[in-house]
Amino acid sequence: MKAAPSSPPLLRRRTLLQIGALGLAAGLAGCAQGRSRPTLRAPADILPSLWRRQLPAPWRFEPLSGSTPFQTPWPNPTDLLALTDGWWSSLTPDQLQSVAAPALAARLGALGQRFLEDAPPEWRSKLLPVGVSPYVLVFRREGRALPPADDGWMTLLDPALKGKVLLPASPRLLISLADHMDRSDGLRRLRQAAISFDDRYGLNWLLQGDARVAVLPLQRCMQALKRDPRLTAVLPNSGSPLHWTLLARPADTAEPLPQAWVSEAWTPPLLTRLLAQGWIPPLPREELLEAGGRIATDLRDLVLPPQEVWLRAWTLYPPTAAEVLRLQQRWSTSAP
Q1: Contact criterion met (CB below 8 Å) for 62 and 85
Q2: The whole model's pTM is what?
Q3: How far is the C-alpha of 60 from the C-alpha of 9, rounded, in Å?
Q4: Could you tell me if 65 and 229 are in contact, meaning their C-beta atoms sit under 8 angstroms apart?
Q5: Cis peptide, bond prior to residue 58, ω within 30 of zero
Q6: pLDDT in tens, 140-192
Q7: Pairing mode, if any, of strands 128-140 and 96-97?
Q8: How many domains does one find in the chain?
Q9: Interval 17-62: pLDDT, tens
Q10: Residue where a domain stops, chosen among 200, 221, 240
Q11: Which residues constitute the domain of residue 246?
C-alpha cells in the first residue's frame, strides 16, 4: 500500500504562522484586559460633557459620587482628578504631585496666572486651572416686570426680593458676597433674604418655585438663559467671585496629564463651542475674543466682560485653621 502524500511544506508553514498569529493576538488581548486603563475621576457635573467625551484612548472617565466624593482612598485606578475650587479644601498637598505641564501653564492668561500666583505656595505646582466661570445674578421675570436695576451684589438686599433669593450652600461664599456690600449687617440681611441655599438644584428652584433671583456660576445657567426668555443674568461691574475648574494628579499615579486633551479644549473649534456654553478657559483675552464668534449677542458681555470686570473678580482659596474659626464665629453671630 502506498503511503499518503505528505502536506506541502508551504502549507505547513502557513498553518503554523496563522496559529502563531492567533496565539499572539489572544495573548495581547489578555494583557490589555489585565492592565488597568488610566482613569479620570470627578463628580459628573464638573466637566463639560462636550469636552469630557473627547478624552483620548486609552483614558476613561469614571464619576465620583456621594456627599464627600474626594475623600480617600479613591477608587483604583485614579490617575487624574477634576474638581472645582469648592472641593479644594477636601484635599491636602501631600495627596497630589506636580501636574508637570509647563507648556499648558505657559498658555494661561492673566486670570489663570493670577490664580496660581495668589495660591498658597504648596499648591501652585499641583493644580492646573482649565476653566473659570463668574458667579452671576439670574433673575426670573414676573409678568412684564423687569428685574431690579443692577446695583451690584446690593441688589440681593432689595426689600422687594426678601424671601425670594436663592443662594449657594456655601457660608464662605456668602460671607465673601456680604463683604462686597456697603452694609455692616450685610451678611445677616443676606441670610434673611434667602428662600433656600442650594447649589445643585438652584436653577430648578428659580424656574419652578417662588424664587425670583439666584446666584449661580454662569456655566450652570447658560443653556437656560438661551432657552427661557423669562431669565436675565447680570454680572456686577464691581466684580464677582470665580468658580474654577481644576485638574490634579494623585501622588501615586505614574500617568502623565493628557496635555493634548487639555490643549484641544483651549483651541478652536472646541474652544468656540465651550465658550458658547459659558465655560471659559483661562487663556489670554485676545484668544478668547477671537474664538467667541458663537456666543449669543445678548450673552456676550457675560462670557467676555470688559477687562476691568475681570480685574475686580476674586478667588476664594482654602482658609487656614485660624480663618475657619473666624468664619464660623462670624456665620454663627449673623443668624437671622
Answers
A1: no
A2: 0.87
A3: 47
A4: no
A5: yes
A6: 988 766 666 668 999 999 999 999 999 999 999 999 999 999 888 999 999 99
A7: unpaired
A8: 2
A9: 454 444 444 444 334 444 589 999 999 989 999 999 999 999 999 9
A10: 240
A11: 39-63+73-133+242-311
